[in-house]
Amino acid sequence: MHILLVHQAFAALDEAGGTRHHELARFLVKRGHQVTIIASPVSYLTGKENGQKQNRIPEPGITILRAYTYTALHRSFIHRVISFLSFMLSSFFLGLSVRKVDLVWGTSPPIFQGITAWLLARLKRTPFLFEVRDLWPAFAIAVGILRNKLLISSSLWLESFLYRQADCVMVNSPGYIDHVRRRGARRVELVQNGADPEMFNPAVDGLSFRCDHNLQDKFIVLYAGAHGMSNDLGVVLQAADLLRDEADIRLVLIGDGKEKPALQAMAKAMNLSNLIFIPPAVKDEMPAVLAAADACIAILKPIELYKTTYPNKVFDYMAAGRPIVLAIDGVIRHVVESAGAGIFVQPGNPQDMARAIQALALAPQKARQMGLAGRSYVEEHFSRAESAEKLALLVEKMGRKNG
What is the pLDDT of residues 306-349, one digit of tens each? Predict the structure, then answer.
């Protein structure tokens, strides 16, 4: 089969950002399929051109096409919408040039590219697989990003329309299933988030990273990922403030996003010498980064809807064998606690986070055991290979029905 994926936020393994789709595409190619990906040349994480403007074939069977995208992604909400719309239009015209497609795979967010995927699927007379990675616009409404009543009603209509039009709606968390069904999805399949344990080695000590950042002999607590409104990293800064007298503890925030400049200014004003910011690393470098950590933080704002999420970073932390300080309630809490892979802290509570970090720092052997328990749990229940197998069976079944 030839599968066409429309994905503005796609990141290859040599780029910063979530690489789930590149990893899944590799598996599909191993099954004998061909995958063409229409992506943006602008990094969804940083809002900057990522240096991958040219169309390219990174490996046999996978072709990446870059569609024009307005670059001011993180300047404001209006600029963000313009960026989404620019990709929606340019990716549609680029997609028309892709020949002999057997299935079109759209993914949200941003939801606007779902329109592109639906139109291409109908014009090419192929099945339309619509993937829901976040509950947009519900999350945007809950966090306060989307406030205009007309935009809210239009977005809700579009969400429901795409669910109804999709031959199958694919979700990456069991917490999303009821929502998409209520909003009109006729067929829903779970292809859950996970990680590739083979990418990580829990036995590696990350000494090079520690030396590069003058962190030798420190207990490193690492956050890796987006620095946005939803990530609530102000709580991490407040926890660092509470831990400023703990000379052996260092908090490290690696990544980028719209809120990073404000967070850096806040950290400077608070004189947080125990917290450092580091630019984002590409996925190929993340195993070495996570190897340097003694514990890792996963955090989202204390919003009820976020209880439905399966954040990718949690599974990477677990695959790397690192214990988790988890400031997210709901379905991912159940995973971490079932695995014995970390400590749950109340979202939005810096005191609770500081106490958890102290507890792990005071019991490094126990922390290490938690990390290894998480690694074993991912290998058994959340391996990328298992998710990819489910995806392959799904697209193959959809392709056979169309044939």
Answer: 999 999 999 999 999 999 999 999 999 999 999 999 999 999 99
Q: Which two tokens stand for residue 352?
A: 């609770």
CA distance 120 to 122: 5
Per the DSSP assignment, residues forming a β-bridge with 325 are 297, 343
For 44-76, write each residue's pLDDT tens digit: 777 777 655 455 656 889 999 999 998 877 677
CATH topology identical between 2-194+383-402 and 197-381: yes
Among residues 67, 90, 85, the alpha carbon closest in space to that of 10 is found at 67
Phi-psi map region of 75: left, alpha, beta (phi>0 left; psi -120 to 50 alpha): alpha
What fold, for 197-381? Rossmann fold (3.40.50)
The pTM assigned to this predicted structure is 0.93
The sign of the torsion formed by the CA atoms of 32, 25, 65, 103 equals positive
Helices 384-402 and 20-30, packing angle to 10 deg: 60
Instruction: Sketch the domain layout of the chain as residue ranges.
Output: 2-194+383-402, 197-381
What CATH number matches the domain at 2-194+383-402, 3.40.50.170, 3.40.50.2000, 3.40.50.300, 3.30.1370.10? 3.40.50.2000
